[in-house]
Design a protein that fits this description.
With 583 residues, the protein is α/β, with parallel strands linked by helices. It is built from 24 helices and 16 strands. The chain has helices at 40-63, 71-85, 87-90, 92-100, 104-120, 125-148, 158-161, 174-178, 198-205, 217-220, 242-262, 290-295, 323-336, 371-377, 379-392, 408-427, 445-448, 451-457, 465-472, 491-507, 524-529, 539-550, 554-566, 570-582; strands at residues 4-7, 9-12, 15-23, 165-169, 187-190, 210-212, 226-230, 235-238, 279-284, 301-305, 342-345, 398-402, 437-442, 460-463, 511-513, 534-537. Helix 13 links the parallel strand 10 and strand 11 (342-345). Helix 2 crosses helix 6 (125-148). Bound molecules: phosphoenolpyruvate and magnesium ion (MG).
């Protein structure tokens, strides 16, 4: 097997070593889990039933064809029926379930991917085109599988049976990425994506090495190839020589030792060397994450990306979480935090986090009807969420955080809807915290340039540096072709962050950063120097940032950050950053 190296963008640090598991686009829409041994035959039957149902579907279609239907249509259905009963499609996946313990959907897409690859090699263009027929037939079976039964993932001990699989895909949506939280995989590689795309952020929250923007990795890497991801450099080594493998195994062991050492800091208060207390908050996607938040010793949750409750639920307005379902989720989170504050960001959908029920037609989704813009255009949906959040506030400290505000009227309308939600609850005598704090994300340059509007109204601010960088530098955060321009140290970004922190301090309003900059240890001292006292990041990053804080002296940092704010010269900025790292 030939060894080769690919270069991409690192999104999550560490080293992963394992066998490649290639996911083709169709595979991304289905659940991937391993079935327990005693469930194998049930799973086999589930797939057989789905095949049978599609067979009947096709028969009915054939019978119901109108008399004047073009003759190709009947031939088309016949071809599909033939494909459906071909053992390569109907039987091979059953073997995959039995031998690899894959769930039915996963087994089917694995086989389809294999067949598709074989078709790609065929010279005859007509035959090559039949690949799409196979995919369409498989899609019908998949639909049937998914609709017929809602099975919960019956998993066996993944760590033991498939310890080191690395997912390789063209792209993975943020919602799909969430499916991988159960620890079945030890790393991710995708062809597309930028460092701060939501998919990358979720990958980072899983605390396993990942590299994105690898161009055509999913075509070059083959199923079961050995792969090393060097998450520090974004380098992927395929089928490495034994010596290289040894080297990375040693590094992996070293990282593990360092991580164990960090764990000792869980209960240590986050104080700088000069005694300044720093608040360390966590970013979460789902209520279950709160257990890790507490375990890592965070002071609370600074960003609950509530949109993950709304994603991957299928089409139709009835598929959205109801007020009660949301309330239960928020209450579960606040109770799990045992008195620590829970900052719930209201639905931030759109761009790379679409809802299944909304047809997104925006030419440029990042600039479209996203986040609060969408919520204000769907007041009933927004009110439902606000009531659910308010109800949860009766069970512990909850704050509301509103994303993507830029206009004064958006602030006004948001507050008026919050008041409306409160009065609806009062009418039915449901308890909530009447003094619930409301904050704004500062993530659009327009907001950072009109801070008086925000500090006048808000109880707190949270800087969303991921979007602030995207919108200030005019680069799509999910587009790997401009990923090299994604620069947190651009003087414009530093100025906007510094002025936001300053405006908050002047008014006595807490300001946090909840974008990815907060969890980047190479930036911790700089942010402390800019006056930041609240950091919100993935729980996995918390202890390394704490270690950096424990080793930082604000008096020594101050002159350097003053210098950085006075220059527009990237060489000077780089020089100061180097000096900060050696303090
Ligand atoms: C941000 O933009 O920095 C942020 C925290 O929000 P999100 O990444 O979810 O857009
Ligand atoms: Mg954002």
């Amino acid at each position: 097997m030939a060894s080769f190296t690919l270069h991409g963008i690192s999104v999550s640090r560490g080293i992963a070593i394992g066998r490649a598991h290639i996911l083709m686009p169709a595979a991304l829409d289905v659940k991937h889990y391993l079935v327990a041994e005693e469930q194998i035959e049930t799973e086999v039957q589930r797939l057989q039933m789905a095949f049978l149902a599609v067979h009947q579907e096709l028969q009915a279609l054939r019978l119901d064809l109108p008399k004047d239907a073009p003759s190709e249509l009947a031939a088309f259905i016949d071809v599909h029926a033939l494909i459906l009963s071909d053992p390569m499609l109907a039987e091979a996946p059953l073997d995959i379930i039995r031998s690899r313990y894959y769930n039915a959907e996963w087994a089917l897409v694995t086989q389809v991917d294999e067949l598709s690859a074989q078709f790609d090699e065929i010279e005859d263009a007509y035959l090559r085109e039949r690949k799409s027929d196979i995919q369409q037939v498989a899609e019908r079976v998949l639909k049937n599988l998914i609709c017929s039964e809602q099975v919960s993932p019956q998993t066996c001990d993944k760590e033991q049976s498939h310890p080191h699989m690395i997912v390789v895909a063209h792209d993975i949506s943020p919602a799909d990425m969430l499916q991988f939280r159960d620890g079945s995989f030890s790393g991710f590689i995708t062809d597309v994506g930028g460092q701060n795309s939501h998919t990358a952020i979720v990958a980072r929250s899983l605390d396993i090495p990942a590299a994105v923007g690898m161009s055509n990795a999913s075509a070059l890497i083959k199923q079961e190839d050995w792969v090393i991801i060097d998450g520090d450099t974004g380098v992927v080594i395929v089928n490495p020589a034994p010596m290289i493998l040894d080297h990375y195994h040693a590094q992996q062991a070293e990282l593990l030792r360092a991580k164990k050492k960090l764990n000792k800091l869980k209960k240590t208060p986050a104080l700088t060397l000069d005694g300044t207390p720093i608040t360390l908050l966590a970013n979460i996607e789902l209520p279950d994450d709160c257990a890790t938040v507490v375990e890592m010793g965070a002071n609370g949750v600074g960003l609950f990306r509530s949109e993950f409750l709304f994603m991957g639920r299928g089409t139709g307005a009835d598929k959205l979480p109801s007020e009660d379902e949301q309330f239960e989720a928020y209450r579960r989170a606040v109770l799990a935090l045992k008195g620590r504050p829970l900052t719930i960001r209201t639905l931030d959908t759109g761009a790379d986090k679409p809802l299944d029920m909304v047809e997104h037609t925006a030419l440029n989704p990042a600039l479209g009807l996203r986040a609060i813009r969408f919520c204000l255009s769907e007041p009933q949906l927004f009110l439902t969420q606000l009531r659910a959040i308010l109800r949860a506030s009766a069970y512990g400290p909850v704050k509301i955080l509103i994303p993507m505000l830029s206009h004064a009227f958006e602030i006004e309308q948001s507050f008026s809807l919050i008041e409306q939600a409160k009065s609806q609850l009062r009418d039915v005598q449901i308890k909530f915290d009447p003094a619930i704090e409301v904050g704004a994300m500062i993530e659009i340059p327009a907001a950072a340039l009109t801070l008086p509007l925000f500090v006048k109204k808000m109880d707190f601010l949270s800087i969303g540096t991921n979007d602030l960088i995207q919108y200030t530098l005019a680069i799509d955060r999910v587009d790997y072709e401009v990923a090299h321009l994604y620069s947190p140290l651009h003087p414009a970004i530093l100025q906007l962050i510094a002025s936001t922190i300053k405006a908050g301090a002047k008014k006595g309003i807490p300001v946090a950063i909840c974008g990815e900059m907060a969890g980047d240890i190479s930036l911790t001292r700089l942010l402390l120097g800019l006056g930041l006292r609240e950091f919100s990041m993935h729980p996995a990053q918390l202890l390394s940032v704490k270690k950096e804080i424990l080793n930082s002296d604000l008096h020594r940092i101050a002159p350097h950050t003053k210098k950085i704010l006075r220059t527009m010269d990237s060489a000077v900025i780089a020089d100061v950053m180097h000096q900060l790292s050696t303090l």
